[in-house]
Amino acid sequence: MSTSTIVGSPAPEATARTAIRVRDLDKTYSSHREGAVNALTAINFEAREGEFICVVGPSGCGKSTLLKIIAGIVSATAGELTINGAAPTDAATRIGLVFQAPVLLPWRTVLENTLLPADVYGLDRKASEKRALDLLKMAGLDGFAHSYPSELSGGMQQRCSITRALLPDPALLLMDEPFGALDAMTRDTMNLELQRIWLESHKTVFLITHSIPEAVFLADRVLVMSPRPGRILDEVKINLSRPRDLDVTLTPEFAAAVKRIRRHLGLGERERPYAD
Amino acid sequence: MPTDAIATPAADPVPAAHAVRPHRVRNFLDRHIAPVSFVILLILLEIFIRYARIPEYILPAPSKIIWALYAGFATPLHSYNGFYVHLAATGISAGSSFVGGALLGIAMGALVVRSAFAMRLFYPYIISLQSVPKVALAPLFTVWFGLGFESKVILGILLTFFPVLVNTAAGLAGVDRDRLELMASMKATPWQTFRLVQLPSALPFVFAGLELAAISAILGAVVGEFVGGEAGMGVLILNRNASLDIPGSMAALVVLAIIGIAVQKLIAYIRRRALFWSPGSKGAEGL
């Protein structure tokens, strides 16, 4: 199987190490209008290697800020954060980042876009190209390697941005509402695809979403965040068996998890009967 | 053509043969109206100037200008009466100022966007320099740098670097934040971010600046030659004007115009090839 080249490090449940460790993380930034804004407060959680973590929370709760802190793009005001035991800014820590928009470079082909991290990290060209082609095959993009992003549908572009994120065999895959811009049907397909890619690659995934059913469908564990200043209100463990298909959304366990998360977000059936 | 398809139904070939001809004439006129009208204008001018007996040293007939054009090219390569020596001089000055101004403009644009300190330091100078009519500095440059190549190139660079700088800075400052965060998440060096993301993203803007710069480069060379020089199209025009060779002077203008158009077309062609991915790269075609 070609999966063996994609798998970075097989992560059997028993020996799983801690991939992300966050201790008492705080983020305060100064804004022109509001002065000092407390975006995140007392964030504590851990993610096992190979675990799929989803984060849900109301708009503006600081979940994107949390993701950017983990990505090493934004620095925390206080607290402790390690990725595989190292600081997020450590040069050796590789992170795959997927945005809501595909953020592909329009002057590069699908293959060249996937190879962007190889250019940045200075990886061996030949080995990277082989790995990129394997990843494109896994994402169902073989045959489009030499197409330009403008020739691809939105869902295919987003899959290409996932192959790019996976290319350098990152310690962590961070996804910020990756399917938020897609229509509902493409979104279902992409959720199934992402689950398959995750099962094949054994990556630790940290995914932010607005959609509670999406979070429950994908996650091993869902972190529920409060409105600003963002705190983690609850950690909901999802014990549905893998691989999950779309029928899982009709099971009582799925409904119970969705219900529990909704209640935290003030969306219980009593308060807002027609809410999502 | 859909009109042809309607005019020539297969079942009725005889009247169709008649119908085709006026359509062809109309289609030809439709497509080539600009050159056709230009030829007609030249003929009308020729008739008017000959009929009204306008002296050659005021407004030469088109045929005289065409003859002067031919004469200018039908000389030996080294003759100062022909175009070649002067074209080479102007071409070298304009080309050097274009390359120099473009490189300086891109470098300064990158510096100004990268460092707020550089922005505060340089921008007031750049803006005040831009409000000086720079061709007015040409006499000063001949005092400082002589009548040769240098004074023209420095004037040319002064004229060309500003549009490139402003456009490059605008392009670099407008790079999509997500693209920069993507590079930051990979811990890319500033140079990698510039080379792989910022510069290519800004290229549509850079090319807009380069198109303006190309015209300014020719302007700078010719103005520099007007003020003083040994060779160049500007020198040729001055000399021919001084000897009341107006057809010759206008022929030199025609050559300059053709070069200007050719340079613009060349840059537009390069832009289309380099920016095949940019949605706007086809929009300004032919303008």
Describe the overall structure.
The complex is a heterodimer of chains A (276) and B (287). Helix content of chain A is 32%, strand content 23%. In chain A, a hairpin with a 3-residue loop joins strand 1 (18-31) and strand 2. Chain A is of the alpha/beta class. Mean pLDDT of chain A is 85; it is low at 1-14 and 269-276. Chain A has a domain at 18-93 and 172-276: Rossmann fold. The longest helix of chain A is centred in the last third of the chain and has 18 residues, at 184-201. Chain A has a six-stranded mixed β-sheet with strand order 5-6-7-3-8-9, sandwiched between helices. Chain B has two domains: 2-60, no CATH class; 84-282, MetI-like (MetI-like fold, Orthogonal Bundle). In chain B, helix 10 (190-227) packs parallel to helix 11 (233-242) and helix 10 runs antiparallel to helix 12 (246-274). With 287 residues, chain B is an all-alpha fold. The longest helix of chain B is centred in the last third of the chain and has 38 residues, at 190-227. Chain B has twelve helices and no strands. Chain B has helices spanning 2-7, 13-31, 33-51, 62-73, 84-114, 116-131, 138-145, 149-173, 177-185, 190-227, 233-242, 246-274. Classes of the chains: A alpha/beta (276), B mainly alpha (287).
Could you tell me the number of beta strands of chain A? 9
Q: What's the total helix number of chain B?
A: 12
* Proper CATH architecture of the largest domain in chain B: Orthogonal Bundle
β content of chain B, as a range? Answer: under 5%
